[in-house]
């Protein structure tokens, strides 16, 4: 059990930090000003392309796909340094963290050749098209249909249905869609994972305005949208297996970087609490100390999870732990601000913390609600039985 | 950076788990706790033979010179079964000698501790059981070439039985540790009727006890000794919490109501999932603190407080829910759930409760001045 990084790892950290500092004090200095999940897209994409051309987006990928084959600790270091630099989170997250690993795991050589490099360089921005109005937590209830039809150029999949909660679909050129390809099939059988162009006819993308004011989610209507027959990931009919693979990528190394973001948020709240005197309130001080203790604990849970092999109980508990923590942090932020925090102009401390307070309410919903997480922890982690048929 | 045990640590864990499984069990644990000593001397002898009394004693004094990770490994194993022994008290006393003792004091006591010839403990607070420096209720005064010790101490683990007591006492307003051997004139010890029935604690009285000058240690290490005590206790709590959860999960798989195991119902499985979160958090915090003790002394105070906070949360909640999800049987004397529940409460207070730990963390993040009202 060693806490320190090796000299080689520290040298890598210095390389990352030097590069980021140079970029963020030069051409991309303005990028640090951007706050919130979905703001400033027109400035963020050039920055993300820049990262991709420099090789940072594909750090961990195999060399064959243009990556650097960085080991786990180098990835941790990169994500920590990135978050520390103050640069905003990635709009290309879906492509880099979800779609690309899925293509590597389930795609054929042709698909890898075609999609991976442009994904790394953010020339293709991806949307994840899994959820539907009636397939949220119960994802296997997907109803969007796709059927093969003949066209002069060859067979195509023709899609009919509606997807929802698709992050950044309004900026995306491609989508990875879980659809029903066997007519009359039910549940997890008869599904396929299709890669579909979103700038084609029959695709209508409508941003959803969220309770925080921003729009990172979209509804995507598919009304006769087409994609080539070859654009199926894995075998037709094996979409569920592919989707489950994708969902395991949702809790990867980038969680460490996300924790540095949490660190920045907690430091911000601590600063405000010291400045406005809230820290003199013993109840507030105790909650701040607890938030600090839990954030530290989270970091070591993440490192235990990433350092171990296979699916650990630590890994299964991680999402529920950090989302609960983050929602409590939002509440603590508002208590630190007091009623004055309810009045906010853009750019102020109160505005940033208000936004965090509002946005944190989505944490317990996306990527498997807290109730789904508890089912997973109990059934896969603790080995408890599934609920009987009679009760379903 | 690495978060896995070395091969040697894994072997130690396996051996510790075996020893505890062979000697634990409800009847043995209850009998040992109820005995005059508060533990089974034969079990302690086995631990000594495995080297546990020597773990934190430097090699120069006949010990193994190992670290907090190794100590936490055996403490966690013992904690799983609530196996009574003077392991915790003796290890903390050895730590105090290593941290604050003079070379002569270390040479006198540590070899005996390492060899298992001497058990030891620490008396860190008064009879109220709080751990602010102001709560120390023993005082030293000069008397000729030496000193005299007066006052009292509470919640002294194995205090009625230990061969050596490292007493925190005030000398001119500063806390100094003093080594007081069992049987010294003026030293009285009375085992307390404690909520925890698988571990012994005593109240000590000091009535004009003679303390030679060479029995007094350097000052300034009170908080350090408390941090080591909490890091070790947290490992034990984490082991106990994990066991409480495991036992409850097993029961939820076996117990059938409404035609299915109760663990299939979401009302039950979600509650057990929440306990798993607490156990995993405690596990992370405990090993982080142990690694800090050995590798990052500057982070250790906060890490130990964090471990104690997380592990207390885990054992308190897991043991309470252990009672609840066992239903009526969990509320009986025969079931072990109450043993874990009792340990949860007493261990959470011992060496400083949640308020005391959050105070340490608040200090570390620069909120110290603001929380002075808690001192």
UniProtKB/TrEMBL annotation, chain A:
Q: Which UniProt keywords apply?
A: FAD, Flavoprotein, Oxidoreductase
List the GO terms this entry assigns under cellular component, sorted alphabetically: plasma membrane
Cite the GO molecular-function annotations of the record.
flavin adenine dinucleotide binding; oxidoreductase activity, acting on the CH-CH group of donors
Q: Which InterPro entries match?
A: Acyl-CoA_Oxase/DH_mid-dom (IPR006091), Acyl-CoA_Oxase/DH_mid-dom_sf (IPR046373), AcylCo_DH-like_C (IPR036250), AcylCo_DH/oxidase_C (IPR009075), AcylCoA_DH/ox_N (IPR013786), AcylCoA_DH/ox_N_sf (IPR037069), AcylCoA_DH/oxidase_NM_dom_sf (IPR009100), Mycobact_Acyl-CoA_DH (IPR052161)
Q: Does the keyword Signal apply?
A: no
Q: Which Gene3D superfamilies match?
A: Acyl-CoA dehydrogenase/oxidase, N-terminal domain, Butyryl-CoA Dehydrogenase, subunit A, domain 2, Butyryl-CoA Dehydrogenase, subunit A, domain 3
Cofactor entry: FAD
Question: The Acyl-CoA oxidase/dehydrogenase middle domain covers which part of the protein?
Answer: 129-214
Under the heading Pfam families, the entry gives: Acyl-CoA_dh_1, Acyl-CoA_dh_M, Acyl-CoA_dh_N
Q: Which SUPFAM superfamilies match?
A: Acyl-CoA dehydrogenase C-terminal domain-like, Acyl-CoA dehydrogenase NM domain-like
Domain called Acyl-CoA dehydrogenase/oxidase C-terminal: residue spans:
237-381
Q: Where is the Acyl-CoA dehydrogenase/oxidase N-terminal domain?
A: 6-122
- What family is this protein classified in? Belongs to the acyl-CoA dehydrogenase family.
Q: What is the name of this protein?
A: Acyl-CoA dehydrogenase
Source organism lineage? Answer: Bacteria, Pseudomonadati, Pseudomonadota, Alphaproteobacteria, Sphingomonadales
TrEMBL record, chain B:
Q: What family is this?
A: Belongs to the acyl-CoA dehydrogenase family.
Query: What SUPFAM superfamilies does the database record attribute to this sequence?
Result: Acyl-CoA dehydrogenase C-terminal domain-like, Acyl-CoA dehydrogenase NM domain-like
Transmembrane regions: none
Q: Which InterPro entries match?
A: Acyl-CoA_Oxase/DH_mid-dom_sf (IPR046373), AcylCo_DH-like_C (IPR036250), AcylCo_DH/oxidase_C (IPR009075), AcylCoA_DH/ox_N (IPR013786), AcylCoA_DH/ox_N_sf (IPR037069), AcylCoA_DH/oxidase_NM_dom_sf (IPR009100)
Q: Which cofactors is this protein said to need?
A: FAD
* One Pfam match: Acyl-CoA_dh_N
Every copy of the Acyl-CoA dehydrogenase/oxidase C-terminal domain together lies at 227-365
Hydrolase is among the record's keywords: no
- Does the keyword Transmembrane feature in the UniProt annotation? no
Which residues belong to any copy of the Acyl-CoA dehydrogenase/oxidase N-terminal domain?
A: 6-117
One molecular function GO term is:
acyl-CoA dehydrogenase activity
Name the chain's protein: Acyl-CoA dehydrogenase
* Keywords, sorted A to Z: FAD, Flavoprotein, Oxidoreductase
């Amino acid at each position: 059990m060693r806490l320190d990084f090796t000299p080689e790892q520290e040298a890598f950290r210095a390389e990352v930090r030097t590069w980021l500092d140079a970029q963020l004090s030069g051409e991309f200095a303005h990028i640090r000003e951007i706050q919130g999940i979905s703001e400033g897209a027109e400035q963020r994409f050039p920055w993300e392309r820049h990262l991709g051309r420099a090789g940072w987006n594909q750090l961990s990928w195999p060399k064959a796909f243009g990556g650097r084959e960085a080991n786990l600790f180098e990835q941790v270091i990169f994500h920590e340094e990135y978050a520390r630099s103050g640069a905003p989170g990635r709009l290309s997250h879906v492509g880099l963290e979800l779609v690309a690993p899925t293509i590597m795991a389930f795609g054929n050589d042709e698909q890898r050749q075609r999609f991976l490099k442009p994904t790394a360089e953010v020339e293709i921005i991806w949307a994840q098209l899994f959820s539907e109005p009636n397939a949220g937590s119960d994802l296997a209830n997907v109803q969007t249909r796709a059927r093969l039809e003949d066209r002069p150029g060859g067979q195509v999949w023709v899609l009919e249905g509606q997807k929802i909660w698709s992050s950044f679909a309004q900026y995306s050129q491609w989508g990875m869609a879980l659809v029903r390809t066997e007519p009359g099939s039910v549940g997890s059988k008869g599904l396929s994972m299709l890669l579909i162009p979103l700038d084609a006819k029959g695709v209508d993308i409508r941003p959803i305005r969220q309770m925080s004011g921003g729009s990172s989610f979209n509804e995507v209507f598919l009304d006769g949208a087409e994609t080539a027959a070859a654009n199926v990931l894995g075998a037709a009919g094996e979409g569920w297996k592919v989707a489950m693979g994708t969902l395991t990528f949702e809790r990867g190394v980038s969680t460490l970087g996300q924790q540095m973001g949490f660190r920045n948020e907690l430091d911000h709240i601590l600063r405000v609490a010291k400045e406005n005197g809230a820290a003199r309130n013993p109840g507030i001080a105790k909650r701040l100390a607890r938030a600090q203790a839990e954030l530290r604990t989270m970091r070591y849970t993440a490192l235990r999870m990433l350092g171990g092999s296979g699916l650990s109980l630590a890994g299964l508990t991680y999402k529920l732990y950090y989302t609960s923590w983050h929602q409590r942090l939002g509440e603590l932020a508002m208590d630190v601000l007091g009623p004055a925090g309810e009045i906010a102009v853009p750019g102020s401390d109160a505005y940033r913390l208000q936004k965090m307070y509002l946005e944190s309410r989505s944490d317990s919903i996306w990527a498997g609600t807290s109730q789904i997480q508890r089912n997973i922890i109990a059934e896969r982690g603790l080995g408890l039985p599934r609920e009987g048929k009679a009760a379903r | 950076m690495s978060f896995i045990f070395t091969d040697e640590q894994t072997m130690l864990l396996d051996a510790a788990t075996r020893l505890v499984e062979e000697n634990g069990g409800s009847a043995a644990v209850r009998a040992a706790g109820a005995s005059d000593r508060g533990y089974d001397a034969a079990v302690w002898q086995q631990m000594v033979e495995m080297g546990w009394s020597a773990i934190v004693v430097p090699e120069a004094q006949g010990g193994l010179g190992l670290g907090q990770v190794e100590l936490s490994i055996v403490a966690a194993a013992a904690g799983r079964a609530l196996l009574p022994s003077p392991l915790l008290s003796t290890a903390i006393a050895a730590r105090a000698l290593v941290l604050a003792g003079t070379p002569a004091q270390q040479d006198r006591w540590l070899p005996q501790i390492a060899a298992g010839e001497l058990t030891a403990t620490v008396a860190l607070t008064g009879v109220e059981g709080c751990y602010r420096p102001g709560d120390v209720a023993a005082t030293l005064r000069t008397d000729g070439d030496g000193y005299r010790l007066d006052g009292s101490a509470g919640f002294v683990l194995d205090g009625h039985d230990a061969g050596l007591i490292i007493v925190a006492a005030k000398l001119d307003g500063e806390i100094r540790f003093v080594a007081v051997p069992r049987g010294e004139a003026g030293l009285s010890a009375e085992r307390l009727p404690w909520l925890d029935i698988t571990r012994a604690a005593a109240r000590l009285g000091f009535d004009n006890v003679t303390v030679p000058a060479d029995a007094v240690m350097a000052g300034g290490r009170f908080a350090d000794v408390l941090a080591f005590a909490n890091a070790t206790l947290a490992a034990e709590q984490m082991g106990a919490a994990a066991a409480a959860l495991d036992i409850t999960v097993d029961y939820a798989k076996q117990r059938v109501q409404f035609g299915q195991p109760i663990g299939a119902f979401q009302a039950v499985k979600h509650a057990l999932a929440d306990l798993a979160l607490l156990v995993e958090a405690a596990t992370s915090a405990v090993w982080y603190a142990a690694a800090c003790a050995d590798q990052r002394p500057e982070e250790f105070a906060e890490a130990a407080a964090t471990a104690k906070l997380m592990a207390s949360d885990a054992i308190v909640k897991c043991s309470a829910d252990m009672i609840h999800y066992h239903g009526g049987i969990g509320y009986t004397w025969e079931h072990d759930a109450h043993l874990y529940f009792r340990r949860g409460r007493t261990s959470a207070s011992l060496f400083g409760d949640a308020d005391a730990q959050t105070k340490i963390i608040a200090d570390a993040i620069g909120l110290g001045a603001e929380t002075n009202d808690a001192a």
